[in-house]
Amino acid sequence: MAIFTARKVDINGHTTAILSIQGEVDVNTEGRKSDVVVLHGEFDELINNRIKWIILDLSEATYIVSSGFGQILAAMTRLRARRGDLYIACIHGAVWTAASTVGLDSLLKFFSTIEEALAEIRQKVSAVSP
After folding, report:
1. For residue 111, pLDDT beyond 80
2. Which of 55, 56, 74, 100 is 20 to 30 A from 46 in CA distance terms?
3. For the whole model, what pTM was predicted?
4. Is residue 2, in this structure, part of any structural domain at all?
5. What's 22's domain CATH number?
């Protein structure tokens, strides 16, 4: 079972979301909504509320099923269409192994810390701000 927590950070008038995942993102959820469906809903809510930058904090994620990675890629595509992006922070262990096996390391930017990802966004925002 996964727990999703979103918080927002303002960067020079641009709202950035940090979406943290704790536990396993799985499709086998015994009578409740699939974690993958919940993840899709989390991304939808953020993107539909005009968030252009999302940092996915995986410091406490222990497993992500392949369809969960599909949702991450779909969110990345939507954000890039709006001139934003999705960054991965604090990935480790089996989640890193699975992400690199499916090729996410060639499609997304990975950061060791949330602060490093925020610094990248600050740099991008300052480059486009008047």
Report:
1. yes
2. 100
3. 0.93
4. no
5. 3.30.750.24
